[in-house]
User: Which sequence fits this backbone?
C-alpha cells in the first residue's frame, strides 16, 4: 500500500526524485529543491495521494553523520492523508552556501510556524513565506543552535533595550504615550 | 525637573495621534502576557484592537524554550526519557509512551502484552488528568472558580494514582525502551476503583455547574469557530480537530499498543466552537475510563520487559552474580542502547492531539537528531485566524480549549 506514493512520484517526476527508501515502513522520498513545490502540489491535489494534512516540517544537519554524501542540511517534511490514511516523508537537501527552500505555505497553510522554527534553528530561508521570523528564540539571537557546528557552551550578546525614539518610528506604536505623566510624589 | 517634563505631556487628544480622525476610532495596541492571570502558560500576544474587536494579533511563543532537542542529542536513548516528561507535563505518560514507541519502532521490537496494557492504562490516566485540567482551568478563567476546585480534586486523585505507580506526580519517566520501570504495584486496581468513584462524583458536579450554565455557554458557544477543512490544512489534531466533526484519532486510525482490542468511541462535535471542544473533552474522559476498565479486565500476569539484555537492563541478581549480566548492565549504562542507523517517525494520540517523535539515529547510543512534533504548536498557529475580527474576550475561552502547554510548545 505504502509504496504507491513513491511509484506515483517516480512515474510523474523522475527528474525531481533523487532517492527513496522505506525503513520500518516509513516511506521516504528525497526531492530536489527546485521540484519541491511541483511535487507538493501534486501530492495534495492528486486524488490517489490526497495529502491534506501537513504534520511536520523540520530539518536535520548531517555534518557528523557517518558516510553521509551530498548537502549538509536536509529539510524534512511529514505529510498525512486523512482520507487515504497514508503518510510520506520528504527530504529536501539544501546546500549551506545557498540555504533556501521554497516555502510550502502556498500549498498547506499549516506549515507556517514549522518553517519559522526551521529558520530559527537551522537558518534555512523559506522563499515565499509570508512572515519568516524567529519563533522560539528572540530577535537578536546570534546563530542557529540546532546546527551541529553550533557550540554547546558560550554566551549570547545582550540585546539592547529599544530606545524610545526607535519606538516612536514604529507605526504599530504610534498611539502609545511615549512620555508618560510622572506619578505624583515619584522622584 | 518635574515641571519641564510636564510640558511634554499631551493635554488634548491631539497629542495621542487622533487629530486626523474626529471620531477617535484609531486602533490601540495591547500587550497580553507573557504572564497574564487569565492565560495558563507563558505566551505573549500583541493585539491591535479597534474597540474590543481584534484587528491584528501577533503570538510570541518561546518563553519556556530550553533546548529540548539539542539536550536529547547529548543524552543516551534512556536518558532522554526524563526530558520527555517535561514536554506536556500534565500528561507525562503519553510523552513517555510516544517516545518509547518511536524508538521501539526503529529497533523493530515488540513489547510484551502486559506492558502494552499497563502503558494503555497509564496513557488514559494521563489523558483524563489533561482533559480535567483543560476543562477546569478553562472554567476558572471564565470566572467559574468552583468547578476548578472539583476538577482539581479529581485530578489530585489521579496524580496520587500516578504517584503510586512511579513515585512522582508529574515527572513520571515510567516507561523504558522495551518495557517499563516496574510492574503495577499491589492494590493499584483498588486504588483506581476509588479514583473512578471520585472522578464520577466530581465530574457530575462540574457537569451540573457548567454544561447548562447560561454564562458559560454564552462565552463558549459560537466563539473560536473553525471548519474541518481549514483545521486539517493547519495540521490540527486531537480533541480540537474532532470538535469540528472530523473523525481523526490515532488510536482508531492507526492503532498502536492494543487499542484495536478495546471498545471505545470517538466523541465528535459538529460546530467546531469552544463549547463543542468542552463537550468533546468531557466525553473523552468517560471513554478513557471505559478503556482503563477494559484494560484491567484483559490484563494477565506476565513479564513487563522484553528478554533482551541489549535493550533492557538485566535483573539485579544477574548483574551482581553473573559476568554476562554485569557486562550487559555496564554497556547499557555507559554506551546506551545501540539503535540501528536510520530514521523513524513515531506518532501517538496524546491528550492534545498527535504527538510525533522524528528520530534520526547514526547507529550509536545517542540520538543523532530528535524532533518532537507537539500537537499544540499547530493549534496555536491557527489561533490568529480564528480570532481576527472577533472580540477580545473570545481569546480567553479559545486559548483555553487549545490547551497550550508551555513545556510542549516551546520545548
Assistant:
Amino acid at each position: 500500500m505504502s509504496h504507491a506514493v513513491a511509484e506515483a512520484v517516480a512515474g510523474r517526476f523522475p527528474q525531481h526524485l533523487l532517492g527513496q527508501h522505506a525503513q520500518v515502513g516509513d516511506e521516504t522520498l528525497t526531492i530536489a529543491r527546485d521540484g519541491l513545490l511541483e511535487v507538493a502540489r501534486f501530492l495534495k491535489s492528486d486524488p490517489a495521494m490526497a495529502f491534506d494534512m501537513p504534520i511536520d516540517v523540520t530539518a536535520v544537519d548531517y555534518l557528523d553523520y557517518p558516510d553521509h554524501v551530498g548537502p549538509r542540511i536536509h529539510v524534512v517534511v511529514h505529510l498525512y492523508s486523512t482520507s487515504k490514511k497514508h503518510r510520506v516523508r520528504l527530504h529536501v537537501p539544501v546546500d549551506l552556501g545557498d540555504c533556501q527552500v521554497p516555502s510550502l505555505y502556498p500549498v498547506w497553510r499549516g506549515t507556517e510556524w514549522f518553517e519559522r522554527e526551521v529558520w530559527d534553528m537551522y537558518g534555512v530561508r523559506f522563499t515565499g513565506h509570508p512572515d519568516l521570523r524567529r519563533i522560539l528564540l528572540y530577535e537578536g539571537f546570534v546563530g542557529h543552535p540546532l546546527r551541529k557546528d553550533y557550540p554547546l557552551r558560550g554566551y549570547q550578546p545582550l540585546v539592547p533595550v529599544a530606545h524610545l525614539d526607535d519606538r516612536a518610528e514604529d507605526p504599530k506604536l504610534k498611539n502609545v504615550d511615549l512620555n508618560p505623566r510622572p506619578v505624583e510624589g515619584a522622584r | 525637573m518635574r515641571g519641564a517634563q510636564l510640558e511634554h505631556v499631551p493635554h488634548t487628544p491631539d497629542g495621542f495621534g487622533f487629530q486626523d480622525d474626529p471620531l477617535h476610532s484609531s486602533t490601540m495596541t495591547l500587550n497580553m502576557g507573557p504572564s497574564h492571570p487569565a492565560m495558563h502558560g507563558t505566551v505573549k500576544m500583541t493585539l491591535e484592537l479597534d474597540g474590543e474587536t481584534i484587528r491584528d494579533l501577533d503570538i510570541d511563543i518561546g518563553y519556556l524554550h530550553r533546548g529540548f532537542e539539542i539536550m536529547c542529542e547529548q543524552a543516551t536513548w534512556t536518558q532522554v526519557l526524563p526530558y520527555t516528561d517535561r514536554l506536556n507535563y500534565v500528561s507525562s505518560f503519553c510523552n513517555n509512551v510516544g517516545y518509547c514507541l518511536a524508538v521501539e519502532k526503529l529497533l523493530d521490537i515488540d513489547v510484551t502484552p502486559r506492558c502494552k496494557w499497563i502503558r494503555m492504562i497509564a496513557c488514559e490516566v494521563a489523558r483524563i488528568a489533561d482533559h480535567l485540567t483543560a476543562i477546569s482551568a478553562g472554567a476558572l478563567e471564565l470566572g467559574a472558580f468552583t468547578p476548578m476546585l472539583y476538577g482539581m480534586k479529581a485530578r489530585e486523585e489521579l496524580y496520587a494514582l500516578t504517584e503510586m505507580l512511579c513515585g512522582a506526580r508529574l515527572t513520571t519517566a515510567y516507561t523504558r525502551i522495551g518495557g517499563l520501570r516496574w510492574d503495577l504495584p499491589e492494590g493499584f486496581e483498588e486504588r483506581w476503583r476509588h479514583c473512578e468513584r471520585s472522578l464520577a462524583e466530581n465530574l457530575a458536579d462540574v457537569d451540573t455547574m457548567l454544561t447548562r450554565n447560561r454564562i458559560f455557554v454564552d462565552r463558549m458557544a459560537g466563539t473560536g469557530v473553525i471548519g474541518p477543512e481549514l483545521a486539517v490544512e493547519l495540521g490540527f489534531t486531537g480533541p480540537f480537530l474532532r470538535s469540528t466533526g472530523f473523525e481523526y484519532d490515532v488510536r482508531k486510525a492507526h492503532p498502536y499498543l492494543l487499542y484495536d482490542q478495546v471498545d471505545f468511541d470517538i466523541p465528535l462535535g459538529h460546530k467546531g466552537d469552544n463549547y463543542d471542544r468542552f463537550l468533546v473533552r468531557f466525553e473523552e474522559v468517560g471513554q478513557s475510563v471505559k478503556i482503563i476498565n477494559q484494560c484491567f479486565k484483559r490484563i494477565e500476569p506476565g513479564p513487563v520487559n522484553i528478554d533482551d539484555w541489549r535493550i533492557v537492563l538485566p535483573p539485579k541478581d544477574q548483574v551482581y552474580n553473573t559476568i554476562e549480566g554485569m557486562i550487559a548492565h555496564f554497556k547499557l549504562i555507559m554506551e546506551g542502547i545501540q539503535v540501528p542507523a536510520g530514521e523513524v517517525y513515531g506518532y501517538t494520540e496524546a491528550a492534545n492531539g498527535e504527538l510525533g517523535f522524528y528520530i534520526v539515529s547514526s547507529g550509536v547510543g545517542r540520538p543523532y537528531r530528535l524532533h518532537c512534533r507537539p500537537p499544540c504548536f499547530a493549534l496555536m498557529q491557527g489561533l490568529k485566524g480564528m480570532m481576527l475580527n472577533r472580540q477580545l474576550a473570545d481569546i480567553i475561552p479559545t486559548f483555553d480549549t487549545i490547551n497550550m502547554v508551555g513545556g510542549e510548545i516551546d520545548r
